């Protein structure tokens, strides 16, 4: 009789995964902490702590449910420190002739497993049912379409799931999208809710010590660790968000605060991506709050769109196009990452604060990722690989299936407009409108030239000028290219010189924050 080993990866911590529910009750279940996964990019210590602690708690839950669980700790003597070899070692140890695993979320690992074909014990991959849209369904949707747009996909998903639809299958409120009510700038007296506090228990405290000892050299601090490490804590965070922050989510979705890292955002991406929450229950919680009258429709819809729309869409794009997608660099960006991405040591207040928040919480919200660190890298011409490695390393929620399309596609426009219809490039004016950083910055956001001019301004015009050939034909860029072309050649030259001077004096440090082995 064949006996499978059920392998659960660190981002597969969902009790009713098909790989578990479909396995014989006496099949051993295995989880492995390994160095290799902590180091293929230098993951933030909070991300590693979050996953190891959540894995250890998940193993406890499985044992309480009567499962036989094998758990390899990072510092176990016989740990081979690699997921594939550890699974094969443990399968042999337990006399298992096959290994079953849920399809991994990163191509790198999928490829390695596929290359084990013919191996004994044999590997089998089971579909991941934690998404609204299967890869097959996405591929079918994509087939024959010249251009993809998230909005079309999202409307299809709304119809398919019935989320926020009325009895005639029309969108609630007779609109698909309430963006005109959203995206308000930050009010002066903003007072967002404090996230729930999770006191680290014994398990988490032990993991913190372990991670400090093994990955202490990675960028990021552990002092403010406050992520949910059990499903119960994650549900608590979800309820807290729906009650206290969701009612304002839409309004201040795009605002950036110098002091409040989380504003009215959910902080749920880590828990969602690791499997502690399912996207359906999160969307249903938001819809129910709207039905109860405690959350306005623009907020519930704006939030659901992020999960039902963007999250599913980027995953579909990732699997449809990997591995080639990762090689795209359509704007031929060739700079290394500025060194201050690993330190926060810059006078540009918006960048400093986004990086400090990242260091302290392994978190920055979407607009900081897109319009501050992302926009700056786009304007500088940072290589996709360098920027993608950074985003993959530093955020609590980062896995390639979601990080890569957001960074390479949405931020860097390196896929030539496949994911987004135009580059999200902006000058300092945008950051000034949406945040309270500029008042506290040594640079003057109103100036483009001179020692105290905001670097975003000259970089912005220099970027547009560099990429005129690729971008000027884009309908959505017409207005801005009109302005560039009306500019005197003296002004253009001064802006160009200012930007080049600035770029030349930056330090670039591609390998900072990585372990010696890399
Ligand atoms: P909220 O703003 O409250 O949004 C609610 C949920 O919607 C999130 O939890 C997330 O699950 C989903 N969501 C929102 N926007 C996106 C999006 N663009 N793509 C996918 N899901 C989205 N998200 C990740 O989960 N992992 C990543 O590695 C990641 N990398 C990113 C890199 C860049 C350059 C950019 C611009 C965005 C990235 N995002 C990533 C998307 C987004 O920034 C985060 O999901 C969000 O900031 C998480 O915080 P939150 O839970 O408070 O989200
Ligand atoms: C991110 C991560 C880290 C840091 N460590 C582990 C680990 O030790 N064991 C494990 O099973 N998973 C880990 N992960 C998550 C994996 O990297 C993730 O499962 C793959 O990238 C596929 O998405």
Automatic annotation (TrEMBL):
GO terms for molecular function: lyase activity. Residues 165-200 are annotated as: Disordered. Residues 177-191 have a biased composition (Basic and acidic residues). InterPro entries: Crypto/Photolyase_FAD-like_sf, PhrB-like, Rossmann-like_a/b/a_fold, UV-DNA_repair_photolyase. The keyword Transmembrane does not apply. Keywords: Lyase. Pfam families: DPRP. This is Cryptochrome/photolyase family protein. The lineage of its organism: Bacteria, Pseudomonadati, Pseudomonadota, Gammaproteobacteria, Oceanospirillales.
